[in-house]
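Consider the tokenized backbone below.
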């Protein structure tokens, strides 16, 4: 858990709205993410969690409101979307790895092609991150031969190879067998302890409680309640938060 004295948010979300057709998926979302902070987003399926993450890294365009990154409006005309995305790492439920490549090539592809890093430098960086997720020995293994937990750890290492300032996780353990969820959460816990700024959509309440600095509960497109985990889990203010959390007891 990182604590930081910086007063400027890394990401500021203000009045964010997003609809798909007549379905209002995000309704006036306001949220600040401070450098070094770990924000966990919880909420029922369909409440808008993934859409919110996707608005942060420009995979979705908001209908109204703003997402600011270090004080720059992501919707501004002159914003370089590609260089911005390089600073925002994303880890998906389904890994999204290149299954026809080995682990190391998965990790070096974007740094070499997008960042114009030399292959040898990219491999040096990648080996460091594979080491930190416990997969250095698998660098030359084919991705398709890995377990789900190993694939997700590769996905985290791959995202880190771009040297992101913030990491977004969208239900990173939801596709995993229960017995291997822990190895992925442990990698994320270490990343948080190292000071990475993180936004984590998850149903792992123990992770939310123990690792995050702030928990955000989304309900039908709004932030119904947000606060420190000790408050949220011991004394939720809203009835709908209590109802949601009671399903995890
Ligand atoms: P969550 O991640 O909390 O489960 P989502 O953000 O994925 O929620 O989705 C919120 C709602 O928006 C859901 O009803 C979903 O079906 C709908 N939705 C998400 N993406 C699209 C899309 N591209 N087109 C139409 N509807 C979408
Ligand atoms: Mg989702």
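A designed sequence for it:
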């Amino acid at each position: 858990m990182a604590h930081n004295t910086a007063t400027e948010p890394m990401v500021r979300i203000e009045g964010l709205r997003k609809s798909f057709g007549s379905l209002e998926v995000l309704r006036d979302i306001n949220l600040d993410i401070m450098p070094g902070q770990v924000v966990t987003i919880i909420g029922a399926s369909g409440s808008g969690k993934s859409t919110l993450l996707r608005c942060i890294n420009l995979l979705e365009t908001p209908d109204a409101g703003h997402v600011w990154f270090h004080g720059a409006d992501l919707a501004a005309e002159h914003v370089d979307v590609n260089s911005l995305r390089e600073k925002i790492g994303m880890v998906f439920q389904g890994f999204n790895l290149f299954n026809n490549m080995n682990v190391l090539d998965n990790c070096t592809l974007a740094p070499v092609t997008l960042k114009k890093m030399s292959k040898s430098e990219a491999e040096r960086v990648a080996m460091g991150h594979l080491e930190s997720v416990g997969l250095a020995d698998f660098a030359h293994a084919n991705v398709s031969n890995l377990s789900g937990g190993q694939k997700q750890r590769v996905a985290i290492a791959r995202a880190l190879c771009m040297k992101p300032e913030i990491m977004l996780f969208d239900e990173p353990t939801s596709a995993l067998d229960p017995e291997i969820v822990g190895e992925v959460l442990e990698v994320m816990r270490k990343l948080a302890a190292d000071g990475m700024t993180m936004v984590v959509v998850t149903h792992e309440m123990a992770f939310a409680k123990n690792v995050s600095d702030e928990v955000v509960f989304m309900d039908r497109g709004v932030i119904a309640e947000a606060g420190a985990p000790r408050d949220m889990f011991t004394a939720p203010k809203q009835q709908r938060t209590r109802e949601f959390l009671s399903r995890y007891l």
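Residues 133 and 186 are 9 Å apart (CA to CA).
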